[in-house]
């Protein structure tokens, strides 16, 4: 594994009309390009992940797994706005020398993909064998496959959408309200909004798992308990865990980017955009996902010519895209076997 920093064109233009000065992208690679340079797997990560895909998607990526660096040249770039090495709200503004914090420019999914595309050109990669991502990563994958249809051979998207739903936007806004209710967020400093971020994570978890998952894992065995319930402790633990590794300003920036996702904007609608995808596509939904329900996956699959649709039967809710690696591997094996047969 190698980790690198790539400096984007300066200033980097954004879809909103603003520019981002001094922007950079952190990325990692594993494996080597083969002689024909056609073994590239590019991973687009989700909301609070990073460029180390072997760490957050174990069982799918790594030695002995489906995407083994012995066979593939794997690339994963940390998205703009994220606090794992790429330019984010904490990064110093070249003009002032201090972070932009809550004044960080608006990012969209198209901006995140534009940064990937600039990195792709820098690496001299002319073909991506497989572009894969779940959730926010799937949104990036779809956007990239629409904007550069000749680039991607195989597209794998899991638990995502062609346009972020009103339901998803409402969840994100509830989380941002929690962060903005923390007075320290408005101070514009490292650590600002940490208490709000913990509360936001607690809100998000409700959409990531769902009723059945909480019932199965967080129900108290002690019927006499009157307070300090297991589910309460779990919410607080997960909130504190995210605060220890992430940042409230990045969280606000990236949830706003997710809200912007609309493949059809300026392209004649979602249907026309999906129809332009030329990659051989696998769309996977999760049966218990309440954030990106199966109906959204079916819409994607129905709109992309020749797309294959599958469902992961899982009780983990939306988080199943990270946890059900055995079932994802089985779906990939069938998908690639059919591709090879044709």
TrEMBL record:
Q: Answer yes or no on keyword Chloroplast.
A: no
Pathway membership, UniProt = Amino-acid biosynthesis; L-methionine biosynthesis via de novo pathway; O-acetyl-L-homoserine from L-homoserine: step 1/1
Q: Where in the cell is it found?
A: Cytoplasm
Active site positions: 135, 289, 318
Keywords, ordered alphabetically: Acyltransferase, Amino-acid biosynthesis, Cytoplasm, Methionine biosynthesis, Transferase
A Gene Ontology MF term for this entry?
Answer: homoserine O-acetyltransferase activity
Q: Self-association or partners: how does it assemble?
A: Homodimer.
The family line of this record is: Belongs to the AB hydrolase superfamily. MetX family.
Please identify the protein, giving its name as recorded. Homoserine O-acetyltransferase
Q: Which organism is it from?
A: Hymenobacter ginkgonis
